[in-house]
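Tutorial handout. Part one gives the primary structure; part two gives the three-dimensional structure as tokens.
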Amino acid sequence: MRVAIVSNGFADGPAQALRDYLVARDASVVTIFHPLTPEQGTHHRVATYADGGQVKKRIVRLPLRPPGSFVLDPFVPLLPPNVDAWFGFNPLACARGLVARATGRARFVFLWSVDFVPDRFGRGTLVTRIYDRVDRLCCRRADARVELSEAARAARNSGISSPGRVSRDCSTPLRHAKISRLTSSEPARWRLSCASKPRASASSVV
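Part two.
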């Protein structure tokens, strides 16, 4: 299976744990890690993993530091990898996956939210309104969502006030999110499942 993992920040977190999990199970993985804070500089890291280890690494340097660099994140790399599953760990990363899916470069797109912060960039500001709109778009159009707590799931769902499709969601700590092959005879097909409360469970085949 070919997987893209897109996130901001270089410290160990859910995105890095997912990478390690999949690489250990012989998945082909491309990670795209953007800087999260000004202190993390201007380097964007793209790495490819296969056969249980890293086989390629590339650094893309852009002229802006966070938060100004966030608007450029979706353009790194200019041509996204062709994958079966795209995991975006924030709305911009997920939205880039939705574009990849629309152009045939990703089969399934997952929004994996690591937190929920109301009015993230200040109450009523233009940046907050844009961020919330992209977040709602991803909640509706991603193939599935992962939330790390029931409270975050409820808060995010409450903000999706307009009618329309909402992706299947799952609220669970990372340790309860499971990705496993369906059968040994179908090595390219995997299942993402969340072992949480029944009403908050989601399962998708990729």
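Part three, for discussion. The radius of gyration is 16 Å. Strands lie at 2-8, 28-34, 43-50, 53-61, 83-88, 106-113, 144-147, 177-181, 190-194, 203-205.
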